[in-house]
Fold this sequence. Notes:
Arc Repressor Mutant, subunit A; Beta-Lactamase; 3 domains; five-stranded antiparallel β-sheet
Amino acid sequence: MISKKIKENILSFLKTKNKGASASEIQRKLNYNRTTITKYLHILNSESQITHEVRGMAKIWTLSESPIITLLTKKNASDEKNNIQNIFNVFEDTGVRILDKDKKIIWMNKTLSSWIGDNSNKFVDMSCCSEYCQNNLENTLCHIKKTIETGKPTTFKTIMNTHTHKHIDVKINTYAIKDKNDSICGAIQLIENITEKQNIDTDNFIEQIDETSRMLSVLQNISYDATKSFKKEKFLQKVLNDVLYLLRISTGMIYLINKKTTRIELIISKGISKKFIDEYKKNSLRIGEGLVGKIAKTGEIIHLKENASNDSRIIRLIAKKEKLQSFIGLPLKTRDSIRGVLVFAHKDQHNFTHCELDMLYTISNQVASALENAALFKKTKESKNLYKSLMDASPDAVVLIDLDLK
């Protein structure tokens, strides 16, 4: 039986330890036995509520930050880290940088690095105030400090010195980054070069900033949901709704491959006819059938900008009757297998931008990983229950001893 009180006590203690604590330190403070502490630390780690790093010979546990901050501060490369970086690097006219709650810069995109030049790396781990604030001005005027303390976005204009000693006018929008406990753990800044855009249409500019803010919000929400214990259909429905809202398109579907039947089943959908849903619920797809079947077979992304319903690979008449114009299908692919297909479509022409495509690719990877983790969790739980049943049914006494002979 998992004790909610023990989990809360561990989290409360770690909140007081800015630099983290070892399992032994947590054990002494909370007065639980070592086996119990170890078990709950791993449970909280699997739920992404805490994380750890090795310092010398000790494993130090700390509270997890935002998934975005956690990914960008990883020393080792990963698909998720690269995908997040690629999304921010698509912004060719906008510098992006991520800061921790102490206002230290932990990452910046290629655009901002190109403005700063070869010395850009020296700013990582440096306080951002060293660039804009002099003396103690940051104590009263620092916009980043205000955002981190209040959670409210701020906007200000200033002048930035480039590596060529050229001054550029920039407009900086700062947004708070929150962890799963809704605590502020950092900030993200969007830095717009407005030197040659002084006459920019204000409404269009605000719309661009709002769209970027919505994109970051959806990515962070999906990251949070993907690390929680979840009901599969509820999780997938939320992913679909969030992306449709963000992209402002009408139609989306999520298909999963049934391992027992090797058929592709329509699990979640929005914006398509009841006849379409009934047809695909009644007669699931074969691997290789139609656009979705092709994606499930090859693992390749298919992107059609127009006249999608009349594509020669579509066989079923009901699909042609939907009269979809634009279509993008992405595999839900893990390292070892393809678990399903994520589809977004529109009855009008919709040209997905490079930024949107990168974001959808990141989301498809997150969903695939979440499904894989859920399957592993279920399998582990079933094995544990089976093991317990065998132990309970055994007529002999059973004693479990850990590596410390306890």
